[in-house]
Amino acid sequence: MNSPSNAGPESPLNSPTGAPAPIAETRPLYWSVRRELWENRSIYIAPLATAAVYLFGYLISLLWVPYSMRAMAALHSAPPLIVLAMPYSHAGMLTTVIAFIVGIFYSLDALYGERRDRTILFWKSLPVSDGTTVLSKAIIPLVVLPLLVFAITVPLQFIMRVLSMAGALISGGSAAAIWRQLPLFEMQVVLLYGLIVLALWHAPIYAWLILVSGYARRAPFLWAVLPPIAIGVFEKLALNTSHFGLLMQDRFFGFSAAAFDLTDKNGVPIDAHFIPLAQLAPGRFLSSPGLWIGLIVAAVLLLAAVRLRRYQGPI
Amino acid sequence: MTVIEARGLRKTFGTTIALDGINLRVEEGRILGLIGPNGAGKSTALNAILGLTPYHGELKVLGRDPWTERDQLMCDVCFIADVAVLPRWMRVWQALDYVAGVHPRFDRAKAEGFLAKTDIRRASKIRELSKGMVTQLHLALVMAIDARLLVLDEPTLGLDILYRKQFYDSLLNDYFDRSRTIVVTTHQVEDVQHVLTDLMFINRGRIVLDCSMEEFESRYVEVTVNPEKVVAARALKPIHERQVLGRGILLFDLKLSHVDRQQLAGLGEVRTPGIADLFVAVMGNQAGEAQGVAQ
Predict the structure, then answer these.
(1) What is the reported pLDDT for A24?
(2) Per-residue pLDDT tens for B98-117?
(3) CB–CB contact B99 A30 (8 Å)
(4) Average pLDDT, whole number, for chain B?
(5) Is residue B182 very low, low, confident or very high in pLDDT (cuts 50, 70, 90)?
(6) What residues in A contact B90, CB-CB < 8 Å?
(7) B102 and A32: CB-CB below 8 Å?
(8) What are the domain boundaries of chain B?
(9) Residue A13 domain-assigned?
(10) How far is A51 from chain B, CA to nearest CA, in Å?
């Protein structure tokens, strides 16, 4: 894991003048992200473990395939696409949900843990700005986790396909049919699109959690959750409306309506287990105010977190 | 060149005054000991110097404003707060990699060289190291950084005497030279007496003594007075008197008392006081003055 470091650090040191060699702006950021991954191994262990458990379960389920295939063959000439795609699509959804949960807990601890264990004094004794630090912590849920989900799901789905083809061969079915009928590449493109959409749409949620983690002196979870609930309850009591609640609901789940066409040409709802490429609506997503308002809010919250970290010491 | 310059440095926490308008000037190549009782304002002063806390007044460290330019300043300033701050989850090689990654003046080979002299293994987690080893590791990291100012806040707290001795020996032999500057706070003043070039006492947010060690040695004299001469000695206005094994030990400030060494030598055994003894004397007088009680 430390191989790149051996190549890198030597070069600036050997500068004969003794003056600090110019350090690339991105180097502290790169090492700060690395450090987050060292400290929070759940970032990659949780999705990996999920994938392993899922794969194991899928393997067991394959033992039943000969029966279900025969049953299905009795009904249709070929299994419907949705049935074929479902376990693959579930694999992607499950790792995404796990990554979301990891991201929530990571963000809640981001600027809290370093103050609680006093290591903030060590981090601040190095030439890494507060902006770089906060950015490196925001990069984890916004970039690293989505990429990890993709990097784990793609091989997972590939192994699943190989296993199911092997299963089909053993039970006398057609492996070629599975290869032909399952649009795995298309599903993976949709997954990637979905992950990007999700990260952008959820950015203000993570930014809020990071800000709270830098503010709370104890119980960051309560600080993060109780104020929105209080606002919602207050609005309901005082005005008998639930705009805030709907706003929150939209922030969590509104991405699907914003980024996908969930009905086909005839107005029939699409099964979310297989969304064809034609149903992606990137143009509508990029022009939806919800996206841009969310990103602006996220930027403001993160800037506040940067400013806050300057004042913060151990607690 | 001036490394630290503070004028009217002030910091309050609510109604508590932590720093009460301090003026401070530390030149390059000095080792300054900042000595004071708990809550005197030492750590607050260091935090201001390191850009960890906002303050009022003027403060320049290596020509920079620490509060607004902390990250650039930390290229030239190193800091060991106390042994607890190295992240306990980190492995030794990760600490080396990380500092090498973010610090432009870190010499990894040098740090590895220091570590080779210790029992610290690269694969160990910091939580697995003893307190002394954590300090050794932190010191190895810091000494491998070509910094101009090193700030040590109670660096040897909780260490046994061997580690403490080793700590200051390494600093003097392997690190310190005339182009570097060290500021250290500690309660273990006997450890640093022969390390310091300058001495500063701070109490209730004010500097109550500021002198070089040469000045300290020429100005303060401790006399173990022969019993029959105690009355004569007291007449010379010592700043402090204590009894050890039935003999009076009197501390004189030659600048205040208008006596010379010859005179004192006639009273008994003369030597340079320990910093701790002068500290007790100065702080005791302060407390006395504050309460309006004649000491």
Answers:
(1) 66
(2) 999 999 999 999 999 999 99
(3) no
(4) 89
(5) very high
(6) 38-39
(7) yes
(8) 2-204, 215-291
(9) no
(10) 26
A181 bridge partner residues? none
Nearest residue of A to residue B104 by CA position? Answer: A20
Contact call for residues A73 and A175 (beta carbons, < 8 A): no
pLDDT at residue A103 greater than cutoff 90: yes
| Interface residue B13 vs chain A (CB under 8 A) | no
Nearest to A126 among B84, B89, B99 (CB): B99
| B253: its two tokens | 């400030």
Residue ranges making up the domain that contains A59 = 26-311
Q: What are B4-42's pLDDT values in tens digits?
A: 999 999 999 888 899 999 999 999 999 999 999 888 888
What ipTM describes this predicted complex? 0.88
Q: Which residue has the tokens 């709370």?
A: A216
Buried b (16+ CB within 10 A) or exposed e, B106-125: bbbebbeebbeeeebeeebe
Q: Which residues 117-136 on chain A approach chain B with CB closer than 8 angstroms?
A: 117-119, 121-122, 124-130, 132
Tell me whether residue A301 is in a domain.
yes
Q: Is the pLDDT of residue A292 over 90?
A: yes
- B141 vs A contacts (CB less than 8 Å): none
Single-letter amino acid, residue A282: P
With beta carbons under 8 A apart, name residues in chain B contacting A23. Answer: 102, 104
pLDDT of A241-259, one tens digit each? 999 999 999 999 999 889 9
Q: Is B107 on the interface with A (CB under 8 A)?
A: yes
- Sort out which chain A residues have CB atoms less than 8 A from B79's CB and list them: 121, 125
Q: How confident is the model at residue A6 (pLDDT cuts 50, 70, 90)?
A: very low
Tell me what pLDDT residue A73 has.
57
Fold of B2-204: Rossmann fold (3.40.50)
Provide the pLDDT for residue B274: 92
DSSP secondary structure string, B230-275? Answer: HHHHHTT--SEEEEETTEEEEEEEHHHH---HHHHHTTEEEEPPPH
Alpha carbons A106 and A111: distance in angstroms, whole number: 10
Considering the domain boundaries, does residue A5 fall inside one? no
Q: From the list B85, B97, B102, which residue is nearest A121 (CB)? A: B85
Q: Give A150→chain B minimum CA distance, Å.
A: 27
Residue A65: pLDDT above 70?
Answer: no
- A-facing residues of B in 47-106 (CB < 8 A) are 47, 50-54, 67, 70-75, 77-81, 84-91, 93-94, 96-106
All residues of chain B having their beta carbon less than 8 Å from the beta carbon of residue A117 are 87-88
With 0-12 / 13-18 / 19 or more C-beta atoms within 10 angstroms meaning exposed / middle / buried, residue A283 is exposed
The mean-pLDDT minimum among A15-19, A237-241, A266-270, B267-271 falls in A15-19
A17, part of any domain: no
pTM over 0.90: no
Helix (H, G, I), strand (E, B) or coil at A76: coil
Nearest CA in chain A to B89: A39
Please state, in angstroms and rounded to a whole number, the distance separating the CA atoms of residues A302 and A204: 9
Q: How many domains does chain A have?
A: 1
Which position has the token pair 């009273």?
A: B267
Q: Do B30 and B197 touch, CB atoms closer than 8 A?
A: yes
